[in-house]
Amino acid sequence: MSKTYRVAILGATGAVGTEFLELLASRQFPLADLKLLASPRSAGRTIQFAGESLPVEAVSEAAFNNVDIVLASAGGSTSKLWAAKAVAAGAVVIDNSSAFRMEPNVPLVVPEVNPQAAFTHQGIIANPNCTTILMAVAVWPLHQVEPVQRIVAATYQSASGAGARAMEEMKEQAQAILQGEEAKTEIFPYPLAFNLFTHNSKLNELGYCEEEMKMVNETRKIFANPEMRITATCVRVPVLRAHSEAINLEFGSPFPVAKAKEILSQSPGVKLVEDWQANYFPMPMEASGKDDVLVGRIREDISNPNGLELWLSGDQIRKGAALNAVQIAELLVKENLPSPPELAVSGKN
């Protein structure tokens, strides 16, 4: 990586934007220049990076001039408004929102799973949903040995999935409840402290919410298997940071537990965490701030001879968002950042 690159962070003041900054520094990304972009209300702020005070600029078309890579995490509507403009200015956009994930000409990439897809981009590369990324990192190594026939997932999603303000809201709710006061809600529809509720994204006609369908559709795209049988139930739980998932896998034949453990213990992005005598397995508290997805409690499905159960915890802000995007950028710079062909996404709703 002798060449250096000009990077812009769109959504620099948010939780994922803050994580982008930490990762660019800690992973020594080859930066020639760094721009921090956000909404006009954040313009004029300064953020510390590598010993410097960098100004936050209001996003504009001119802000993308002389930028090689845009790391975007400012929401779907913002990405739809600005991504095409950034590409037209000559940048490659790695977008963390759901805006472009299911567009057929936009690669959806988890570097441990389908790194080659990044090089088919036409200016925009999509970062998958956090729950999809965590599951894919754990399931893919097993799928490579014995194709998975069916996935049944249940998620236990932390407040961090709704952003930094949601985390603060849960803290305030906990304090209020402990003091015998009413728990007020602003970000979430219901109190999350000392509570849980099924994911409150919009339901479809089959009763599945958007978060659940993201896991279904995005996993199919990443695994290049549009007919893969997947179902999910997504739940928000009173955890500050890092998501957990219970995954049931069905194979075409029995998959030995010892073999699964051996594979996962050697898989990139995975850390095997198991102590059966101590009943010690992955926990979100221990996954927080970590790059790896913690995987454990691997066991046979006693209801299905071809089934395997596993449990995982992973940092939603880190591997579930910012780290995955930075890893995609690292893939590109290793190949000297191929220039995007003519933009082939409209940026429309």
Automatic annotation (TrEMBL):
Residues reported to bind phosphate: R101
GO molecular function per UniProt: aspartate-semialdehyde dehydrogenase activity
Keyword Oxidoreductase among UniProt keywords: yes
Residues involved in NADP(+) binding: T13, G14, A15, V16, R41, S42, S160, G161, Q316
Keyword Hydrolase: no
SUPFAM superfamilies in UniProt: Glyceraldehyde-3-phosphate dehydrogenase-like, C-terminal domain, NAD(P)-binding Rossmann-fold domains
Top-tier EC class: oxidoreductase
Protein's pathway: Amino-acid biosynthesis; L-lysine biosynthesis via DAP pathway; (S)-tetrahydrodipicolinate from L-aspartate: step 2/4; Amino-acid biosynthesis; L-methionine biosynthesis via de novo pathway; L-homoserine from L-aspartate: step 2/3; Amino-acid biosynthesis; L-threonine biosynthesis; L-threonine from L-aspartate: step 2/5
Enzyme Commission numbers on file: 1.2.1.11
Signal peptide residue numbers: none
InterPro entries in alphabetical order: Asp_semialdehyde_DH (IPR012080), Asp_semialdehyde_DH_beta (IPR005986), NAD(P)-bd_dom_sf (IPR036291), Semialdehyde_DH_NAD-bd (IPR000534), Semialdhyde_DH_dimer_dom (IPR012280)
Binding site for substrate: Q157, E210, R236
One Pfam family of this chain: Semialdhyde_dhC
Domain called Semialdehyde dehydrogenase NAD-binding: residue spans: 6-121
Reaction equation(s) it catalyzes: L-aspartate 4-semialdehyde + phosphate + NADP(+) = 4-phospho-L-aspartate + NADPH + H(+)
Active site (record annotation): C130 (acyl-thioester intermediate), H243 (proton acceptor)
Record's keyword terms, sorted: Amino-acid biosynthesis, Diaminopimelate biosynthesis, Lysine biosynthesis, Methionine biosynthesis, NADP, Oxidoreductase, Threonine biosynthesis
Matching NCBIfam families: asd_B, PRK14874.1
Subunit annotation: Homodimer.
Family designation: Belongs to the aspartate-semialdehyde dehydrogenase family.
Role this protein plays: Catalyzes the NADPH-dependent formation of L-aspartate-semialdehyde (L-ASA) by the reductive dephosphorylation of L-aspartyl-4-phosphate.
Record-given protein name: Aspartate-semialdehyde dehydrogenase
Source species taxonomy: Bacteria, Bacillati, Cyanobacteriota, Cyanophyceae, Oscillatoriophycideae
